[in-house]
Structures are given as structure tokens and as C-alpha cells.
């Protein structure tokens, strides 16, 4: 069985400003290659026994699976939600040159400096 190397991570944010801060931080730290920000989505969910309905911003982050734990730490430090969404979706295939680009730009400084 082939090991999944690349993933897409999903996260929702309460505002565009917060989404942009998280996206920029993750890209600057070389933890993700790209973050697509999809504004103005409506989420309906159950929270503390009540159905909630909120406008949110969706982040789609393209990265490598081995960086998930570091991304999770950054997200928890920057995200205002008590329980932020972070879902990992495996990439089972992709344009080889795009996947190679992900590999090239996701070299966290902690890896480079070692």
C-alpha cells in the first residue's frame, strides 16, 4: 500500500482577518505551500446542545502529511475557537509538478536549520 505524502487540510475561521493571519503565518513558516481562502460560507452546527448558524471563512491548505503536527500547534495558538476545525484529507493523486512544488516550498525553517 502506498503511503500518502500530500494532504489538504480544512479549517473554518470566524473572520477574513483571522483567516488571513493564519494563512500567512503557515505559508511564512513553510508549513503549507498554499492556502486558498473561501470567504462567506455559512456553517450550521450543533454546539452545547443548540443549533448554531454562523458566517465563516474556509481555509484549504495544501501541504505534506508529515507537517500536520506542527500545523496543528500553530493553528491552536492562533485560532480563537475553543475547538477549531482541522480536518486532513489525503491526496491520492495530483499533477506531479504541483506535488513537487509542494515539497519544495514546505521546508520548515526548523528542518532547514538542522
From TrEMBL:
Pfam families: CutA1. GO terms for molecular function: copper ion binding. Gene3D superfamilies: 3.30.70.120. Coiled coil: none annotated. GO terms for biological process: response to metal ion. SUPFAM superfamilies: GlnB-like. Belongs to the CutA family. This is Divalent cation tolerance protein CutA. It comes from Beggiatoa leptomitoformis.
Amino acid at each position: 500500500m502506498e503511503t500518502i505524502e500530500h494532504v489538504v487540510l480544512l479549517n473554518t475561521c470566524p473572520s477574513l482577518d483571522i483567516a488571513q493571519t493564519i494563512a500567512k503565518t503557515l505559508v511564512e513558516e513553510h508549513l503549507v505551500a498554499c492556502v486558498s481562502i473561501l470567504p462567506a460560507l455559512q456553517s450550521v452546527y450543533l454546539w452545547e446542545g443548540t443549533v448554531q448558524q454562523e458566517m465563516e471563512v474556509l481555509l484549504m491548505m495544501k501541504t505534506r502529511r508529515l507537517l500536520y503536527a506542527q500545523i496543528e500547534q500553530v493553528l491552536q495558538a492562533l485560532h480563537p475557537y475553543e475547538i477549531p476545525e482541522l480536518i486532513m484529507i489525503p491526496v491520492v493523486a495530483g499533477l506531479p509538478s504541483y506535488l513537487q512544488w509542494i515539497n519544495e516550498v514546505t521546508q520548515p525553517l526548523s528542518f532547514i536549520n538542522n
